[in-house]
Amino acid sequence: MTPPDDAPRFNSAAARDIEYALHPYTNHKAFRESGPLIIQRGEGIRVFDDAGRDYIESVAGLWCASLGFANQRLADAAYRQMQKLPFYHAFGARSHDPLIDLSEMLIGRAPLSSGGKPFSKVFFANSGSEANDSAIKMIWFFNNAIGRPAKKKIIGRVRGYHGITVASGSVTGQPANHAMFDLPIAGFHHVSTPHHYGYAQPGESEEAFATRLAQELEDLILREGPDTVAAFFAEPVMGAGGVIIPPATYYEKVQAVLRKHDVLFVADEVICGFGRTGSYWGCQTFNIQPDILTCAKQLSSAFLPISAVMISDRLYQGIAEGSDKAGTWAHGFTYSGHPVPAAVAIETLKIYDEIDMPKLVAERGAYLQRAMRERFADHPLVGEVRGVGMIGAIQLSPDKASRATFDPARKLGTRWQALGQEHGVMMRVLVNESAAISPPLIISEAEIDTMLERMMVALEALRAEI
Could you tell me the superkingdom of the organism this chain comes from (predicted)? Predict the structure, then answer.
């Protein structure tokens, strides 16, 4: 039956959402016509909308719901802490048990920092953006404290993603995060994306490509002046930039350049940390020894907002001296180390230990990588299938041989994502029509099969349309 012309287009909740909510990463003019998808509950790797339809979450929400969308232990941990101490801050040398315990647990599980030494201290924030913004301020404070006031420039990578504050959005290398925001601000620079499939020259090996990118980085440092370049930011595996796996020898060569010019390495483990790449940290997967490590998302399995910045002892000693000169280290958030998210993060790390998360992901990830390639590599619309551990991408191409990309104006990735939703899988299709795959780490092999089947049905529907 066709609804009457004067029938409301949206239910009450959707209408109120359109009326009052300003959604992140949304075309708001189009949104007022399409309306929201309202998710009401979650269970395992699935979420359910207000009509009762289920969707497999192929990207764990936003790369973060590692233990799925329902876990009683994490809910209980939050409730117990709320009953005991629902809030306290860490300003002025105050502390509490969850902050202390989580700091110790993170340092104990951290990879090696620069020079093969343990990390020294942990600072807490509320998001990956805040963690990376804090890292930038730490770097600037450190260099002022040790008498290098000119050494402040920050280098990121094209398509890299490090957040959306003014500073973290500047080191981010995504056009959408710069357009109309007047970013990047002065002092931020970007080098090429380390994607061999997309940017290697004809016949160029991965090692030769890595050598060329390392030289590009050194050329930039020399052009700007080593005494002005402070730090280099990199995700071990680029996430929002399209799930970019670095070419062989890339980080080995990049780190040599950074050490040569005393440029700090900040490893953004916001997506890669806590097992996603098959090791506890992406740094361990790719043999990175950073000066600073940032993490978030899977730290609490996304149950509550929390992020962390781990710093080397060299950084800490400089910050300590600077804080004495200035009278304080005047940085921090009301909710830095908030006891409730910290308690949930502690319980999350305990669960990771109990299920041996890196081993589980290494085994389950091998199945995911194999299944992705078997199902999609030969599809006529697919150019590349790539990944490591429990993160991957399927990139569309109109021509496998030339590695061409589709005209962005056709918005085929957006259409594939919409078709996926119609067929019961939440997808996130990124730059160059690359569908990211980063499901909850607890996903079973049978659930991997179902997820990929739904994605394939959506891809076949897209193929029929074009």
Answer: Bacteria
Q: What is the DSSP letter of 302?
A: T
What are the pLDDT tens digits along the chain (466 aa)? 344 454 467 789 999 999 999 999 999 999 999 999 999 999 999 999 999 999 999 999 999 999 999 999 999 999 999 999 999 999 999 999 999 999 999 999 999 999 999 999 999 999 999 999 999 999 999 999 999 999 999 999 999 999 999 999 999 999 999 999 999 999 999 999 999 999 999 999 999 999 999 999 999 999 999 999 999 999 999 999 999 999 999 999 999 999 999 999 999 999 999 999 999 999 999 999 999 999 999 999 999 999 999 999 999 999 999 999 999 999 999 999 999 999 999 999 999 999 999 999 999 999 999 999 999 999 999 999 999 999 999 999 999 999 999 999 999 999 999 999 999 999 999 999 999 999 999 999 999 999 999 999 999 999 999 9
Distance between CA atoms of residues 115 and 416, nearest Å: 45
One CATH from 3.40.50.1110, 3.40.190.10, 3.50.50.60, 3.90.1150.10 for 37-70+356-465: 3.90.1150.10
Bond before 184 cis per omega within 30 degrees: yes
Q: What is the per-residue DSSP string for 183-209? A: -SPTTEEEE----HHHHPPTT--HHHH
